[in-house]
Amino acid sequence: MLKILIVDDEKLIREVIKEYCEVENYQVFEAEDGNYALDIVRNNDINLIVLDIMMPKLDGYSTYKEIKKIRNIPTILLSARSEEYDKLLGFELGIDDYMTKPFSPKELIARIKAVTKRSNKEIESFIYKTLKVDFLAHTIEIDNKEIKVTPKEYEILTYFIKNKNIAISREQLLSAIWGYDFFGDDRTIDTHIKMLRNNLGKYRDLIVTVRALGYKFEIKD
Amino acid sequence: MLKILIVDDEKLIREVIKEYCEVENYQVFEAEDGNYALDIVRNNDINLIVLDIMMPKLDGYSTYKEIKKIRNIPTILLSARSEEYDKLLGFELGIDDYMTKPFSPKELIARIKAVTKRSNKEIESFIYKTLKVDFLAHTIEIDNKEIKVTPKEYEILTYFIKNKNIAISREQLLSAIWGYDFFGDDRTIDTHIKMLRNNLGKYRDLIVTVRALGYKFEIKD
DNA sequence: TATTTTTGTGAACTTTTAGTGAAAATTTTT
DNA sequence: AAAAATTTTCACTAAAAGTTCACAAAAATA
C-alpha cells in the first residue's frame, strides 16, 4: 500500500487531501511543518510526499533538501499562488511535480498516480516465454538466438512493451517515435509493423491490430 | 479541434479567455448566462466548459447540474473569490477543476490542457456485473470472455457509458460519433444498435430505446 | 379496432481499412 | 562514390465494416 506524507501547515488542506487519498486506499501521514516531516520520513517507509512550500519554521524548499539527504522520495510540491510558478520552473533539483493552490483534489490524485507510476517504471528487460528484450544491451532474443531488427522496429517494439496491453493509435506512435514534426503518410507504420511481425516470427501475434485505431502489444498475463 | 464554451456574465472576462483560447486554436463559444449555455450545449458538440459560478438568472451550480442532464462534459468552474475555496472543496459532483478569480490566462490554458488530457484518460475502465469495458486495452469482456465489436459499435458503447442514464438523440449520436459532416440516413444508427445489442448478449437490454428520440444506456445503480 | 408512426431486422450493396510486395527515396556504412 | 541498409511511398487486394433498404413488428394515436 502506498504511504503518503502530507506536509502543510493548514489543517484543512491536510484533511481534504487525506480524505481523497483514503478513498484511493493510500496510507496517509501528516506533518504540520518541516521538522515533523523529517521525523516521519526517518521513521517510516514513505513512498511519496506532498509538500507545501510556504510554511512557518522549516519552509518547503529547505525541507525538501533535507529530505533528499535522508532518502530519495518522489515529491509533489504545492505552491500558494500561481505567481510562484515561475520560481518553481527555475527551481530544478528533481521535483517530480508541482501544483498551485487552489488545486482540485481530483488533479492531485491524478498526479500522485502519475508520479508513483513513473518512479516504478524503470525496467531493464522484458521477458515473455522465450522472447527476451534487453533494454541495456539493446538486443532481442527468441529461443536464445539473437534476432536483428532495424532501429525503427526496435523503437516500436520497446514502445509497445512499455505500453503493453494498451491500444496505441497511429498518431500516438507517430508522435512518440517519429516526433511531432513528421508529416508523412501514417500508413508507413503499417509497413514497419509488417516487418516487425515478420521478425518476431512465432511471436508475431503479440502485435494485434486494433481496427480504425492502430495496434496493441498484447500479453495475456 | 477542441470546442470550448465560456459561460460568464462579464463580457470582458469572456473576451480575454476567448482570445487566449484562439491562440491555442480552440473553437470558442460564448454564453452570458446559464440559459444560453444550455442552448449551446444542446446544439453543439462542446468538449469543455469554463463556467462562472456567480451569474444572474441561472447561476453556475444550477447550470452545471442541468448540463449534466444533457451530457457529460468536463467543466472548469470559476469562482469570484478565494473564500469560495472551502465551499468548492465540499462541493463534489464531478467537477474537473476550478479556479478563483483573478486568474492568469496562462494558468487557465494550462488547466484546460490538463483537464482535457485527463478526461480522455482518467476513466480506465467501466465495470457493471460481468460486463467490463477496458478503455486502455480497447476491449470488451463479458463473463471474462472477450467479445469482438466493430469500431463504430465500440465508439457508440463508450459514448453511452460516458453518458450513462442520459437519453441520447439520434442527432446527438450522429454528431458525436459520425461528425458534423455526415449526411446519411439516421436510421443507420438503428442498424449499429442492433449489432451492438446482439454482441452484448445478455446485456443487450442496457440499451433501451427512447421512442421518438433515440437510445439510452441505462444502469440502475 | 383501425390507422399511423416508429423501431427492429435480415440481406444486398458500398465503402473503408489493413496486409502486402515492390519500388523509390533516403541514410548509413564501406 | 559506391554499396548496403533502412525508411518511405504506393498500388493492389482481401477482408472487414458501414450503409441503405424493404418489410416485419411494436407502439402510439385516432
Account of the protein in words:
The structure is a homodimer of 221-residue chains. Chain A has 221 residues and is α/β, with parallel strands linked by helices. Chain A has two domains: 3-119, Rossmann fold (3-Layer(aba) Sandwich), CATH 3.40.50; 125-217, Winged helix-like DNA-binding domain superfamily/Winged helix DNA-binding domain (Arc Repressor Mutant, subunit A, Orthogonal Bundle), CATH 1.10.10. Chain A has eight helices and twelve strands. Chain A has helices spanning 11-23, 34-43, 60-70, 84-90, 105-119, 151-162, 170-178, 188-200, and strands spanning 3-7, 27-31, 48-52, 75-79, 97-100, 125-128, 131-134, 139-142, 145-147, 168-169, 207-210, 214-217. The first copy, chain A, has a five-stranded parallel sheet with strand order 2-1-3-4-5, sandwiched between helices. In chain A, strands 6-7-8-9 form a four-stranded antiparallel sheet, with no helix packed on it. In chain A, strands 10-12-11 form a three-stranded antiparallel sheet. In chain A, helix 1 links the parallel strand 1 and strand 2 (27-31). In chain A, helix 1 (11-23) packs across helix 5, helix 2 (34-43) runs parallel beside helix 3 (60-70) and helix 6 (151-162) packs across helix 8. Chain A is elongated, with a radius of gyration of 22 Å. The first copy, chain A, starts with a strand and ends with a strand. In chain A, 24% of the residues are buried. At the A-B interface, helix 5 of A face helix 4, strand 5 and helix 5 of B.
